[in-house]
């Protein structure tokens, strides 16, 4: 209920912005989403909220600025599906200069109606790995083949270079902005938001369903969607660097450490608008509520904190007891 109210409130605010802009020479309205983060359930929730608001208000486009080392495969798949299904054209832009769309971020870049990069940015290195579980050759091949097929399925429909995209998965290739443009993995290079939107204005794009759409983005007013308080706090608490992961950890291709023998946070769980993080080293759980008058409180959780605590949002698994988790924790 609180999530629904939050979405309606955001939609009403964006609608007010777009109506106001409509009264000023029909200025286009572009919803701006910043993904400067790992790909995980919190960032997926934030992106989905922005896409929902843009669709409800019939924005001219959604601009997702991305800078990520990668993240969870399941969250990535969820986000890719939402980008593909968005009724509003989606522009994914690796920016500012020096940013990257590493690993799972590369999948998001290729899923967009328009893929763009800033000068000096890079993308790729998207080979999947599983933390805490040693896979035999057959299972490794199955995981790689499945991930590559998922990427091929929509890269081909976007009219981009399927072989170069697949090389990022099978051979962990990474591309500079100029290389990505030359290989037709992206549509353009732009130095900033304004240049990007002005260049795209009047361009006809082919949506995933085959329909043709003319973009109206010149001089667009950017309506920014910011993370909620709950999203900001949970995002920081699930950050592997803040979590104090100790020695013996597993490191993904981007160099971000996700799991180790000395975990500060056992796991997290999400039920509707109520969230909890259970610290392994403390006798309590942090409960977060982003309703009006939101609060942060510590409650006693007993001695069960030493046990693995289930799964995360929509099936994504967070670090628990890897010795008993046959499925492990896959990410890209």
Could you explain how this protein is built, in words?
By secondary structure, this protein is α/β, with parallel strands linked by helices. 33% of the residues lie in helices and 23% in strands. The chain has two domains: 224 residues, 2-enoyl-CoA Hydratase, Chain A, domain 1 (Alpha-Beta Complex), CATH 3.90.226; 103 residues, no CATH class. It contains nine helices and 19 strands. A six-stranded parallel beta sheet has the order 9-5-3-2-1-12. The chain has a four-stranded antiparallel beta sheet with strand order 15-16-17-18, with helices on one face. A three-stranded mixed beta sheet has the order 4-6-8. α1 crosses α2, α2 runs parallel beside α3 and α3 packs parallel to α4. The N terminus is likely disordered.
SSE blueprint and pairings:
Elements: H1 2-22, E1 29-35, H2 41-56, E2 61-66, H3 73-85, E3 90-94, E4 100-102, H4 104-111, E5 114-117, E6 122-124, E7 129-131, H5 137-155, H6 162-170, E8 174-176, H7 177-182, E9 188-189, H8 193-200, E10 204-206, E11 212-214, E12 221-225, H9 229-237, E13 250-251, E14 257-259, E15 265-271, E16 274-279, E17 285-289, E18 295-299, E19 329-331
Helix pairs in contact: 1-2, 2-3, 3-4, 5-6
């Amino acid at each position: 209920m609180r999530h629904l109210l939050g979405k309606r409130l955001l939609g009403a605010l964006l609608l007010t912005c777009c109506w106001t802009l409509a009264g000023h020479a029909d200025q286009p309205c572009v919803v701006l989403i910043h993904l400067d983060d790992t790909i995980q359930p919190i960032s997926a929730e934030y992106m989905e909220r922005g896409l929902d608001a843009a669709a409800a208000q019939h924005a001219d486009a959604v601009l997702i600025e991305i800078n990520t080392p990668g993240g969870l495969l399941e969250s990535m798949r969820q986000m890719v599906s939402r980008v593909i299904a968005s009724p509003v054209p989606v522009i994914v832009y690796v920016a500012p200069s020096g940013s990257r769309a590493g690993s799972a971020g590369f999948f998001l870049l290729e899923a967009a109606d328009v893929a763009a990069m800033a000068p000096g940015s890079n993308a790729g290195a998207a080979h999947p790995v599983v933390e805490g579980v040693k896979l035999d050759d057959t299972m490794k091949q199955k995981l790689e083949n499945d991930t590559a097929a998922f990427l091929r399925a929509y890269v081909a429909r976007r009219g981009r270079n399927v072989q170069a995209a697949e090389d990022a998965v099978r051979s962990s290739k990474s591309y500079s902005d100029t290389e990505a443009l030359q290989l037709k993995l992206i549509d353009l290079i732009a130095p900033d938001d304004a240049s990007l939107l002005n260049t795209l204005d009047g361009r006809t794009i082919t949506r995933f369903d085959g329909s043709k759409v003319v973009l109206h983005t010149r001089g667009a007013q950017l309506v920014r969607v910011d993370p909620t308080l709950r999203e900001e706090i949970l995002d920081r608490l699930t950050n592997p660097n803040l979590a104090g992961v100790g020695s013996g950890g597993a490191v993904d291709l981007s160099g971000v450490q996700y799991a180790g023998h000395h975990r500060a946070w056992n796991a997290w769980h999400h039920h509707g608008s109520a969230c909890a993080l259970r610290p392994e080293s403390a006798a309590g759980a942090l409960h977060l509520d982003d309703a009006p008058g939101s609060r942060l409180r510590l409650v006693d959780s007993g001695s069960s904190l030493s046990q693995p605590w289930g799964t995360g949002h929509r099936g994504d698994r967070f670090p628990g007891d890897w010795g008993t988790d046959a499925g492990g924790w896959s990410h890209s």
